[in-house]
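Priority: medium. Attachment 1 of 2:
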Protein backbone atom coordinates (compact mmCIF):
# COMPACT_ATOMS: atom_id res chain seq x y z
CA UNK A 1 0.00 0.00 0.00
CA UNK A 2 1.56 3.37 -1.01
CA UNK A 3 1.96 6.25 1.43
CA UNK A 4 -1.25 8.22 1.92
CA UNK A 5 -1.38 11.88 2.95
CA UNK A 6 -4.18 13.46 5.00
CA UNK A 7 -5.54 16.82 3.87
CA UNK A 8 -7.76 18.62 6.38
CA UNK A 9 -10.29 21.21 5.22
CA UNK A 10 -12.10 21.83 8.52
CA UNK A 11 -11.20 25.53 8.42
CA UNK A 12 -12.62 25.97 4.93
CA UNK A 13 -15.16 23.33 3.94
CA UNK A 14 -15.95 22.45 7.56
CA UNK A 15 -16.69 26.08 8.41
CA UNK A 16 -19.48 26.00 5.82
CA UNK A 17 -21.43 23.60 8.04
CA UNK A 18 -24.61 24.95 9.59
CA UNK A 19 -24.01 26.41 13.06
CA UNK A 20 -20.23 26.79 12.69
CA UNK A 21 -18.49 30.16 12.63
CA UNK A 22 -14.78 30.45 13.39
CA UNK A 23 -13.08 33.62 14.56
CA UNK A 24 -9.46 34.21 13.56
CA UNK A 25 -8.43 33.07 17.05
CA UNK A 26 -10.51 29.89 16.62
CA UNK A 27 -8.87 29.17 13.28
CA UNK A 28 -5.40 29.58 14.75
CA UNK A 29 -6.26 27.23 17.63
CA UNK A 30 -7.61 24.58 15.24
CA UNK A 31 -4.58 24.86 12.96
CA UNK A 32 -2.20 24.50 15.90
CA UNK A 33 -4.01 21.38 17.13
CA UNK A 34 -4.01 19.81 13.67
CA UNK A 35 -0.31 20.63 13.33
CA UNK A 36 0.39 19.02 16.71
CA UNK A 37 -1.49 15.91 15.62
CA UNK A 38 0.58 15.61 12.45
CA UNK A 39 -1.95 16.28 9.67
CA UNK A 40 0.01 16.62 6.42
CA UNK A 41 -1.94 19.49 4.83
CA UNK A 42 -4.19 22.09 6.51
CA UNK A 43 -6.44 24.06 4.18
CA UNK A 44 -6.84 27.34 6.05
CA UNK A 45 -9.53 29.05 4.02
CA UNK A 46 -10.12 31.22 0.97
CA UNK A 47 -7.96 34.35 1.43
CA UNK A 48 -9.36 36.06 -1.66
CA UNK A 49 -12.96 35.82 -0.46
CA UNK A 50 -12.95 37.59 2.93
CA UNK A 51 -10.69 39.66 5.24
CA UNK A 52 -10.90 37.13 8.12
CA UNK A 53 -9.25 34.36 6.14
CA UNK A 54 -6.56 36.72 4.87
CA UNK A 55 -5.81 37.82 8.46
CA UNK A 56 -5.53 34.17 9.47
CA UNK A 57 -3.01 33.39 6.72
CA UNK A 58 -0.87 36.41 7.54
CA UNK A 59 -0.86 35.42 11.24
CA UNK A 60 0.12 31.85 10.37
CA UNK A 61 2.87 33.09 8.04
CA UNK A 62 4.48 34.76 11.05
CA UNK A 63 3.84 31.91 13.50
CA UNK A 64 4.58 28.97 11.19
CA UNK A 65 3.75 25.28 11.58
CA UNK A 66 6.00 22.49 12.86
CA UNK A 67 4.59 19.37 11.19
CA UNK A 68 1.91 20.40 8.69
CA UNK A 69 1.87 22.49 5.53
CA UNK A 70 -0.64 25.30 5.20
CA UNK A 71 -2.74 25.45 2.04
CA UNK A 72 -4.67 28.40 0.59
CA UNK A 73 -7.85 27.68 -1.35
CA UNK A 74 -9.33 29.50 -4.32
CA UNK A 75 -11.00 29.17 -7.71
CA UNK A 76 -9.91 29.45 -11.30
CA UNK A 77 -9.91 32.93 -12.75
CA UNK A 78 -13.05 34.52 -14.14
CA UNK A 79 -14.03 33.93 -17.75
CA UNK A 80 -12.45 36.15 -20.40
CA UNK A 81 -9.90 37.74 -18.04
CA UNK A 82 -6.27 36.84 -17.34
CA UNK A 83 -5.21 35.15 -14.10
CA UNK A 84 -2.72 38.00 -13.55
CA UNK A 85 -5.72 40.38 -13.31
CA UNK A 86 -7.93 38.30 -11.03
CA UNK A 87 -8.45 39.61 -7.47
CA UNK A 88 -9.02 36.15 -5.95
CA UNK A 89 -5.83 34.83 -7.53
CA UNK A 90 -3.97 37.87 -6.19
CA UNK A 91 -5.32 37.03 -2.73
CA UNK A 92 -3.78 33.55 -2.98
CA UNK A 93 -0.37 35.08 -3.64
CA UNK A 94 -0.80 37.58 -0.81
CA UNK A 95 -1.59 34.74 1.65
CA UNK A 96 2.08 33.64 1.49
CA UNK A 97 1.01 29.98 1.51
CA UNK A 98 3.44 27.80 -0.44
CA UNK A 99 0.70 25.40 -1.53
CA UNK A 100 -2.46 26.53 -3.31
CA UNK A 101 -5.53 24.42 -4.08
CA UNK A 102 -7.56 25.64 -7.05
CA UNK A 103 -11.00 24.29 -7.80
CA UNK A 104 -12.44 24.35 -11.29
CA UNK A 105 -15.49 23.19 -13.16
CA UNK A 106 -15.30 19.69 -14.61
CA UNK A 107 -19.01 19.23 -15.34
CA UNK A 108 -20.20 20.75 -18.63
CA UNK A 109 -23.55 21.46 -16.94
CA UNK A 110 -21.80 23.89 -14.56
CA UNK A 111 -19.78 25.42 -17.36
CA UNK A 112 -22.96 26.11 -19.31
CA UNK A 113 -25.44 26.99 -16.51
CA UNK A 114 -23.22 28.50 -13.77
CA UNK A 115 -20.18 30.02 -15.46
CA UNK A 116 -22.19 30.90 -18.59
CA UNK A 117 -19.17 30.32 -20.79
CA UNK A 118 -17.91 27.84 -23.38
CA UNK A 119 -16.21 24.52 -22.67
CA UNK A 120 -13.07 25.80 -24.43
CA UNK A 121 -12.90 28.94 -22.25
CA UNK A 122 -13.32 26.84 -19.09
CA UNK A 123 -10.31 24.73 -20.10
CA UNK A 124 -8.32 27.91 -20.68
CA UNK A 125 -9.38 29.24 -17.25
CA UNK A 126 -7.94 26.09 -15.66
CA UNK A 127 -4.70 26.18 -17.66
CA UNK A 128 -4.12 29.91 -17.18
CA UNK A 129 -4.77 29.91 -13.41
CA UNK A 130 -2.65 26.86 -12.66
CA UNK A 131 0.27 27.92 -14.86
CA UNK A 132 0.24 31.49 -13.50
CA UNK A 133 0.43 30.30 -9.88
CA UNK A 134 3.16 27.80 -10.76
CA UNK A 135 5.13 30.63 -12.39
CA UNK A 136 4.97 32.43 -9.02
CA UNK A 137 6.62 29.50 -7.28
CA UNK A 138 3.46 27.93 -5.82
CA UNK A 139 2.81 24.22 -5.58
CA UNK A 140 -0.66 23.78 -7.07
CA UNK A 141 -3.23 21.11 -6.24
CA UNK A 142 -6.27 21.01 -8.50
CA UNK A 143 -9.73 20.14 -7.07
CA UNK A 144 -11.94 18.71 -9.82
CA UNK A 145 -15.30 19.88 -8.51
CA UNK A 146 -18.28 17.55 -9.17
CA UNK A 147 -15.94 15.15 -10.98
CA UNK A 148 -17.94 11.94 -10.53
CA UNK A 149 -21.18 13.52 -11.72
CA UNK A 150 -19.23 15.15 -14.55
CA UNK A 151 -17.69 11.85 -15.61
CA UNK A 152 -21.08 10.15 -15.77
CA UNK A 153 -22.42 13.00 -17.93
CA UNK A 154 -19.46 13.57 -20.27
CA UNK A 155 -16.40 11.37 -19.83
CA UNK A 156 -14.17 13.01 -22.40
CA UNK A 157 -14.75 16.59 -21.30
CA UNK A 158 -14.32 15.85 -17.59
CA UNK A 159 -11.04 14.09 -18.38
CA UNK A 160 -10.00 17.04 -20.52
CA UNK A 161 -10.28 19.34 -17.51
CA UNK A 162 -7.92 17.09 -15.53
CA UNK A 163 -5.45 16.89 -18.39
CA UNK A 164 -5.55 20.69 -18.70
CA UNK A 165 -4.65 21.13 -15.01
CA UNK A 166 -1.95 18.46 -15.19
CA UNK A 167 -0.44 19.97 -18.32
CA UNK A 168 -0.34 23.43 -16.70
CA UNK A 169 1.74 22.13 -13.79
CA UNK A 170 -0.65 20.88 -11.08
CA UNK A 171 1.17 18.44 -8.77
CA UNK A 172 -1.98 16.63 -7.62
CA UNK A 173 -5.50 16.20 -8.97
CA UNK A 174 -8.25 15.72 -6.40
CA UNK A 175 -11.43 14.00 -7.59
CA UNK A 176 -14.42 15.52 -5.79
CA UNK A 177 -17.81 13.96 -5.14
CA UNK A 178 -19.16 17.42 -4.38
CA UNK A 179 -22.85 16.49 -4.29
CA UNK A 180 -22.12 13.39 -2.22
CA UNK A 181 -24.38 11.20 -4.33
CA UNK A 182 -21.94 8.65 -5.75
CA UNK A 183 -22.08 5.13 -4.30
CA UNK A 184 -18.87 3.30 -3.50
CA UNK A 185 -18.91 0.75 -6.34
CA UNK A 186 -19.45 3.44 -8.99
CA UNK A 187 -16.83 5.72 -7.45
CA UNK A 188 -14.21 2.95 -7.55
CA UNK A 189 -15.08 2.08 -11.15
CA UNK A 190 -14.50 5.70 -12.22
CA UNK A 191 -11.16 5.88 -10.38
CA UNK A 192 -10.00 2.68 -12.10
CA UNK A 193 -10.85 4.16 -15.51
CA UNK A 194 -9.28 7.56 -14.86
CA UNK A 195 -5.99 6.67 -13.14
CA UNK A 196 -4.26 5.19 -16.21
CA UNK A 197 -4.96 8.37 -18.20
CA UNK A 198 -3.03 10.64 -15.78
CA UNK A 199 0.55 10.92 -14.54
CA UNK A 200 0.30 12.94 -11.32
CA UNK A 201 -0.99 11.56 -7.97
CA UNK A 202 -4.74 11.61 -7.30
CA UNK A 203 -6.67 12.70 -4.23
CA UNK A 204 -10.26 12.14 -3.11
CA UNK A 205 -12.76 14.62 -1.62
CA UNK A 206 -16.12 13.15 -0.59
CA UNK A 207 -19.29 14.66 0.83
CA UNK A 208 -21.69 12.62 2.94
CA UNK A 209 -25.09 13.24 1.36
CA UNK A 210 -25.55 9.51 0.76
CA UNK A 211 -23.97 8.51 4.06
CA UNK A 212 -20.94 6.87 2.40
CA UNK A 213 -18.25 9.59 2.50
CA UNK A 214 -15.96 7.63 4.83
CA UNK A 215 -16.51 4.36 2.94
CA UNK A 216 -15.82 6.11 -0.38
CA UNK A 217 -12.61 7.65 0.97
CA UNK A 218 -11.31 4.31 2.26
CA UNK A 219 -12.26 2.49 -0.96
CA UNK A 220 -10.57 5.21 -3.04
CA UNK A 221 -7.29 4.52 -1.22
CA UNK A 222 -7.68 0.81 -1.94
CA UNK A 223 -7.95 1.79 -5.63
CA UNK A 224 -4.76 3.85 -5.70
CA UNK A 225 -5.68 7.29 -4.34
CA UNK A 226 -2.79 8.74 -2.29
CA UNK A 227 -4.35 11.84 -0.64
CA UNK A 228 -7.61 11.97 1.33
CA UNK A 229 -9.43 15.24 1.97
CA UNK A 230 -11.95 15.57 4.79
CA UNK A 231 -12.83 17.41 7.97
CA UNK A 232 -12.56 16.59 11.66
CA UNK A 233 -15.89 15.16 12.88
CA UNK A 234 -17.27 15.33 9.33
CA UNK A 235 -18.22 19.02 9.56
CA UNK A 236 -19.28 20.63 6.30
CA UNK A 237 -22.06 21.90 4.11
CA UNK A 238 -25.40 20.01 3.97
CA UNK A 239 -24.63 16.53 5.37
CA UNK A 240 -20.95 17.26 5.85
CA UNK A 241 -17.66 15.93 4.51
CA UNK A 242 -15.83 12.67 5.04
CA UNK A 243 -15.05 12.43 8.76
CA UNK A 244 -11.28 12.24 9.11
CA UNK A 245 -11.54 10.63 12.57
CA UNK A 246 -12.70 7.21 11.30
CA UNK A 247 -10.84 7.73 8.01
CA UNK A 248 -7.48 8.02 9.79
CA UNK A 249 -8.24 5.18 12.20
CA UNK A 250 -9.43 2.84 9.44
CA UNK A 251 -6.45 3.58 7.19
CA UNK A 252 -4.01 3.06 10.03
CA UNK A 253 -5.58 0.16 11.92
CA UNK A 254 -7.50 -1.71 9.23
CA UNK A 255 -5.39 -1.20 6.10
CA UNK A 256 -1.98 -0.71 7.70
CA UNK A 257 -1.47 2.65 5.95
CA UNK A 258 1.06 4.72 7.88
CA UNK A 259 -0.85 8.00 7.51
CA UNK A 260 -0.18 9.11 11.11
CA UNK A 261 2.27 7.99 13.79
CA UNK A 262 1.30 5.47 16.47
CA UNK A 263 1.97 8.09 19.14
CA UNK A 264 -0.27 10.70 17.51
CA UNK A 265 -3.02 8.15 16.91
CA UNK A 266 -3.45 7.96 20.68
CA UNK A 267 -4.59 11.59 20.54
CA UNK A 268 -7.32 10.91 17.97
CA UNK A 269 -10.23 11.08 20.46
CA UNK A 270 -8.73 14.21 22.05
CA UNK A 271 -8.47 15.89 18.63
CA UNK A 272 -12.10 15.12 17.88
CA UNK A 273 -13.34 16.51 21.20
CA UNK A 274 -11.05 19.56 21.04
CA UNK A 275 -12.29 20.57 17.57
CA UNK A 276 -15.92 20.10 18.63
CA UNK A 277 -15.34 22.43 21.58
CA UNK A 278 -13.70 25.15 19.48
CA UNK A 279 -16.44 24.73 16.86
CA UNK A 280 -19.12 25.03 19.58
CA UNK A 281 -20.72 21.83 18.31
CA UNK A 282 -22.08 18.98 20.42
CA UNK A 283 -19.79 15.96 20.37
CA UNK A 284 -21.51 12.93 18.85
CA UNK A 285 -21.60 10.17 21.47
CA UNK A 286 -21.91 7.49 18.78
CA UNK A 287 -19.03 8.73 16.62
CA UNK A 288 -16.81 5.78 15.65
CA UNK A 289 -13.52 5.58 17.52
CA UNK A 290 -13.83 8.95 19.35
CA UNK A 291 -17.39 9.08 20.75
CA UNK A 292 -18.02 8.46 24.43
CA UNK A 293 -20.32 5.57 23.44
CA UNK A 294 -17.88 4.02 20.95
CA UNK A 295 -16.68 1.54 23.57
CA UNK A 296 -19.64 1.61 25.96
CA UNK A 297 -21.36 -1.67 26.85
CA UNK A 298 -24.90 -1.88 28.18
CA UNK A 299 -26.45 -5.31 27.58
CA UNK A 300 -25.90 -7.89 30.30
CA UNK A 301 -24.70 -10.53 27.81
CA UNK A 302 -22.19 -8.06 26.37
CA UNK A 303 -20.86 -6.98 29.77
CA UNK A 304 -20.52 -10.57 30.93
CA UNK A 305 -18.54 -11.49 27.81
CA UNK A 306 -16.38 -8.37 28.04
CA UNK A 307 -15.30 -9.36 31.55
CA UNK A 308 -13.94 -12.59 30.10
CA UNK A 309 -12.38 -11.24 26.90
CA UNK A 310 -12.63 -7.65 25.58
CA UNK A 311 -12.31 -8.88 21.98
CA UNK A 312 -15.79 -10.38 22.22
CA UNK A 313 -17.47 -6.99 21.66
CA UNK A 314 -14.67 -4.56 20.72
CA UNK A 315 -12.98 -4.40 17.31
CA UNK A 316 -9.91 -2.55 18.70
CA UNK A 317 -8.38 -1.63 22.03
CA UNK A 318 -9.91 1.82 22.78
CA UNK A 319 -6.61 3.04 24.25
CA UNK A 320 -5.02 2.90 20.78
CA UNK A 321 -7.09 5.94 19.74
CA UNK A 322 -7.13 7.61 23.14
CA UNK A 323 -10.61 6.46 24.16
CA UNK A 324 -11.67 4.19 27.02
CA UNK A 325 -14.07 1.39 27.81
CA UNK A 326 -17.29 2.06 29.75
CA UNK A 327 -19.66 -0.45 31.38
CA UNK A 328 -23.07 1.22 31.54
CA UNK A 329 -25.42 0.72 34.44
CA UNK A 330 -29.03 0.04 33.42
CA UNK A 331 -31.83 -2.45 33.76
CA UNK A 332 -30.43 -4.23 30.69
CA UNK A 333 -27.04 -4.71 32.29
CA UNK A 334 -28.39 -6.84 35.14
CA UNK A 335 -26.44 -7.62 38.28
CA UNK A 336 -23.14 -7.85 36.37
CA UNK A 337 -23.19 -4.15 35.56
CA UNK A 338 -24.06 -3.26 39.14
CA UNK A 339 -21.30 -5.49 40.49
CA UNK A 340 -18.71 -3.88 38.19
CA UNK A 341 -19.82 -0.39 39.21
CA UNK A 342 -19.70 -1.36 42.89
CA UNK A 343 -16.19 -2.74 42.45
CA UNK A 344 -15.07 0.55 40.86
CA UNK A 345 -16.46 2.35 43.92
CA UNK A 346 -14.68 -0.06 46.28
CA UNK A 347 -17.98 -1.40 47.59
CA UNK A 348 -18.16 -5.05 48.66
CA UNK A 349 -21.10 -6.37 46.64
CA UNK A 350 -21.33 -9.96 45.47
CA UNK A 351 -23.26 -10.73 42.28
CA UNK A 352 -25.79 -12.96 44.05
CA UNK A 353 -25.95 -11.00 47.30
CA UNK A 354 -29.28 -9.67 48.64
CA UNK A 355 -27.87 -6.15 48.26
CA UNK A 356 -27.21 -6.67 44.54
CA UNK A 357 -30.74 -7.96 44.03
CA UNK A 358 -32.13 -5.01 45.99
CA UNK A 359 -30.24 -2.45 43.92
CA UNK A 360 -31.20 -4.15 40.64
CA UNK A 361 -34.88 -4.06 41.65
CA UNK A 362 -34.56 -0.41 42.65
CA UNK A 363 -32.81 0.40 39.36
CA UNK A 364 -35.50 -1.35 37.29
CA UNK A 365 -38.27 0.49 39.16
CA UNK A 366 -36.60 3.86 38.68
CA UNK A 367 -35.89 3.29 34.98
CA UNK A 368 -39.53 2.33 34.54
CA UNK A 369 -40.38 5.78 35.94
CA UNK A 370 -38.06 7.51 33.49
CA UNK A 371 -34.69 7.58 35.22
CA UNK A 372 -31.74 6.99 32.94
CA UNK A 373 -28.39 6.54 34.68
CA UNK A 374 -26.05 6.12 31.69
CA UNK A 375 -25.40 9.86 31.59
CA UNK A 376 -25.85 10.29 35.35
CA UNK A 377 -23.27 8.03 36.94
CA UNK A 378 -22.88 10.39 39.89
CA UNK A 379 -26.56 9.94 40.75
CA UNK A 380 -26.16 6.17 40.46
CA UNK A 381 -23.20 6.18 42.84
CA UNK A 382 -25.26 8.12 45.38
CA UNK A 383 -28.21 5.75 44.84
CA UNK A 384 -26.02 2.71 45.55
CA UNK A 385 -24.51 4.17 48.71
CA UNK A 386 -27.91 5.25 50.01
CA UNK A 387 -29.32 1.77 49.34
CA UNK A 388 -26.37 0.16 51.12
CA UNK A 389 -26.68 2.65 54.00
CA UNK A 390 -23.10 3.79 53.39
CA UNK A 391 -23.93 7.41 52.90
CA UNK A 392 -24.55 10.26 55.29
CA UNK A 393 -26.36 13.36 54.09
CA UNK A 394 -24.44 16.61 54.08
CA UNK A 395 -27.64 18.66 54.59
CA UNK A 396 -31.41 18.20 54.84
CA UNK A 397 -34.04 20.18 52.97
CA UNK A 398 -36.85 21.63 55.08
CA UNK A 399 -38.45 23.39 52.15
CA UNK A 400 -38.00 25.74 49.20
CA UNK A 401 -40.09 28.25 47.29
CA UNK A 402 -39.56 29.68 43.81
CA UNK A 403 -41.26 32.89 42.70
CA UNK A 404 -41.34 33.91 39.04
CA UNK A 405 -42.66 37.40 38.41
CA UNK A 406 -43.39 39.28 35.21
CA UNK A 407 -44.43 42.91 35.32
CA UNK A 408 -45.63 44.99 32.39
CA UNK A 409 -42.79 46.11 30.09
CA UNK A 410 -40.20 44.59 32.43
CA UNK A 411 -38.13 41.43 32.23
CA UNK A 412 -39.03 38.29 34.13
CA UNK A 413 -37.46 38.02 37.59
CA UNK A 414 -36.96 34.81 39.57
CA UNK A 415 -36.26 34.36 43.27
CA UNK A 416 -35.68 31.14 45.21
CA UNK A 417 -36.03 30.81 48.99
CA UNK A 418 -34.55 27.73 50.73
CA UNK A 419 -34.66 26.36 54.25
CA UNK A 420 -32.01 23.79 55.14
CA UNK A 421 -30.58 22.07 58.18
CA UNK A 422 -26.79 21.88 57.92
CA UNK A 423 -24.64 20.31 60.65
CA UNK A 424 -27.42 20.88 63.19
CA UNK A 425 -27.98 24.49 62.21
CA UNK A 426 -30.93 25.93 60.30
CA UNK A 427 -30.17 28.05 57.25
CA UNK A 428 -32.76 30.26 55.57
CA UNK A 429 -31.53 31.98 52.41
CA UNK A 430 -32.85 33.62 49.25
CA UNK A 431 -31.26 34.38 45.89
CA UNK A 432 -32.28 35.71 42.49
CA UNK A 433 -31.34 34.01 39.24
CA UNK A 434 -31.77 34.00 35.47
CA UNK A 435 -34.39 31.28 35.87
CA UNK A 436 -35.80 28.91 38.50
CA UNK A 437 -32.90 26.44 38.38
CA UNK A 438 -30.26 29.15 38.45
CA UNK A 439 -32.02 30.82 41.40
CA UNK A 440 -32.22 27.50 43.29
CA UNK A 441 -28.56 26.80 42.57
CA UNK A 442 -27.53 30.21 43.91
CA UNK A 443 -29.72 29.94 47.01
CA UNK A 444 -28.42 26.45 47.80
CA UNK A 445 -24.79 27.50 47.44
CA UNK A 446 -25.44 30.59 49.55
CA UNK A 447 -26.82 28.42 52.33
CA UNK A 448 -23.90 25.98 52.20
CA UNK A 449 -20.90 28.21 51.44
CA UNK A 450 -19.81 28.74 55.04
CA UNK A 451 -20.05 25.03 55.80
CA UNK A 452 -18.58 23.72 52.54
CA UNK A 453 -16.33 26.35 50.91
CA UNK A 454 -15.16 23.77 48.35
CA UNK A 455 -18.45 24.30 46.46
CA UNK A 456 -17.02 27.56 45.12
CA UNK A 457 -14.82 25.47 42.80
CA UNK A 458 -17.80 23.69 41.23
CA UNK A 459 -20.01 24.92 38.39
CA UNK A 460 -22.94 23.67 36.30
CA UNK A 461 -21.79 23.17 32.70
CA UNK A 462 -24.91 21.75 31.02
CA UNK A 463 -28.65 21.42 31.64
CA UNK A 464 -30.99 19.25 29.56
CA UNK A 465 -34.73 18.63 29.84
CA UNK A 466 -36.63 15.86 28.07
CA UNK A 467 -40.40 15.27 28.13
CA UNK A 468 -41.02 11.57 28.78
CA UNK A 469 -44.70 11.19 27.86
CA UNK A 470 -45.64 13.92 25.38
CA UNK A 471 -49.29 12.87 25.05
CA UNK A 472 -49.99 14.07 28.59
CA UNK A 473 -49.08 17.59 27.51
CA UNK A 474 -48.10 20.06 30.23
CA UNK A 475 -48.72 17.40 32.90
CA UNK A 476 -46.04 15.11 31.42
CA UNK A 477 -43.14 13.81 33.44
CA UNK A 478 -39.79 15.34 32.56
CA UNK A 479 -36.24 14.08 32.93
CA UNK A 480 -33.61 16.64 33.86
CA UNK A 481 -29.92 15.92 33.32
CA UNK A 482 -27.34 18.24 34.84
CA UNK A 483 -23.64 18.14 34.05
CA UNK A 484 -21.31 19.70 36.59
CA UNK A 485 -17.57 20.20 36.72
CA UNK A 486 -14.72 21.32 38.91
CA UNK A 487 -11.02 21.76 38.29
CA UNK A 488 -10.39 18.04 37.74
CA UNK A 489 -13.63 16.22 36.98
CA UNK A 490 -17.01 16.23 35.18
CA UNK A 491 -20.10 14.37 36.42
CA UNK A 492 -23.75 13.92 35.54
CA UNK A 493 -26.86 13.79 37.73
CA UNK A 494 -30.56 13.21 37.07
CA UNK A 495 -34.02 14.05 38.35
CA UNK A 496 -37.48 12.91 37.19
CA UNK A 497 -40.85 14.41 38.09
CA UNK A 498 -44.10 15.79 36.69
CA UNK A 499 -42.83 19.12 38.03
CA UNK A 500 -39.80 20.47 36.18
CA UNK A 501 -38.64 22.42 39.25
CA UNK A 502 -38.73 19.29 41.41
CA UNK A 503 -36.86 17.27 38.77
CA UNK A 504 -34.27 20.03 38.54
CA UNK A 505 -33.93 20.14 42.32
CA UNK A 506 -33.26 16.39 42.48
CA UNK A 507 -30.49 16.64 39.88
CA UNK A 508 -29.10 19.79 41.49
CA UNK A 509 -28.91 18.26 44.98
CA UNK A 510 -27.24 15.11 43.64
CA UNK A 511 -24.70 17.27 41.85
CA UNK A 512 -23.79 19.19 45.00
CA UNK A 513 -23.76 16.09 47.22
CA UNK A 514 -21.55 14.22 44.77
CA UNK A 515 -19.03 17.08 44.87
CA UNK A 516 -19.04 17.04 48.68
CA UNK A 517 -18.71 13.25 48.73
CA UNK A 518 -15.80 13.45 46.32
CA UNK A 519 -14.06 16.04 48.47
CA UNK A 520 -14.62 14.04 51.66
CA UNK A 521 -13.04 10.95 50.08
CA UNK A 522 -10.02 13.03 49.02
CA UNK A 523 -9.36 14.22 52.57
CA UNK A 524 -6.92 12.11 54.65
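Attachment 2 of 2:
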Amino acid sequence: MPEVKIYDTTLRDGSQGEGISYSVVDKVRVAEELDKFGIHFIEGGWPGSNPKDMEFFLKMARAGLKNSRLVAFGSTRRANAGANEDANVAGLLKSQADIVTIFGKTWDLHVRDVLKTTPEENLEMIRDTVSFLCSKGKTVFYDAEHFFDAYQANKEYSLATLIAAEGAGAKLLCLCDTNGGTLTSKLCAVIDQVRPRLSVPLGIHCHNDSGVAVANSIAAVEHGITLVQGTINGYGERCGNADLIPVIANLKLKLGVDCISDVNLKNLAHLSHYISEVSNMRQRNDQPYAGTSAFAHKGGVHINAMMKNPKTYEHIDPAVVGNHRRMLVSELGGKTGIMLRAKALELDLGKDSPEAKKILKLLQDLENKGYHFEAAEASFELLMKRALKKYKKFFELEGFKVVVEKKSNKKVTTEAVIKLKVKGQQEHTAAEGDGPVNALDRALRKALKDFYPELSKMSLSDFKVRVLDEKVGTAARVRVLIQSQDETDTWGTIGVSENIIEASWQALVDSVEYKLLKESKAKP
